[in-house]
Amino acid sequence: MGARGPIPNREDDLARPRSRKGSDEQETKKGQMRPVRVPRADPDWHPAAKQLYDSLKKSGQSDFYQQSDWAYAWALMDDFSHYKKASKRSAQMAQTLYSALGNLLVTEGDRRRVRIELQEPEPEETPTAVLAIADYKKELGLVVSGER
To answer: CA nearest 116: which of 104, 126, 127?
Structure first.
């Protein structure tokens, strides 16, 4: 897990890249990602646990999840469900559960602490050269109906 403390700024907000700041950060070790099968949510879970688990599947940070991360998420949601269904809830248990969610990088602050930033997808644009060729074809009368 990343360092605690204040949430770092987004990379876009920095005057220069972190790599140029001369910090003593260790180089990242790399491994091979493996295929992942996401376990199904337990139908008996509390609705809040189901919603949170489903949101993990749709969130960008799950691109980094491996099988062990999904197993951890499933076990955490199971505990979260038991907590939510309990007639008497412990503040210490709530703190433990919400702290554990940080290990799954659920919030933007959690992700920024470990230097993960989710970006908006790049809009798919038709290159101007393709548009220009289409316009020339149209002017020459070479455009088939329905073609641009």
So the answer is: 104
Q: What is the pTM of this model?
A: 0.66
Q: Which of 69, 137, 65, 138 is nearest to 100 (CA)?
A: 69
Number of domains in the chain: 1
- 87, with CB counted inside 10 A (0-12, 13-18, 19+), is exposed
Q: What token pair was written down for 62?
A: 């799950």
Q: How confident is the model at residue 146 (pLDDT cuts 50, 70, 90)?
A: low
Position 126 in a domain: no
Residue 65 pLDDT greater than 70, yes or no: yes
Question: Which residue range forms the structural domain that includes residue 74?
Answer: 41-119
In a domain, 78, yes or no: yes
Asked if the structure places residue 28 within a domain, the reply is: no
Q: What tens digit of pLDDT does each residue of 82-112 get?
A: 999 999 999 999 999 999 999 999 988 888 8
Any domain includes 29: no
Task: Give the separation between CA 148 and CA 132, rounded to whole angstroms.
Answer: 10
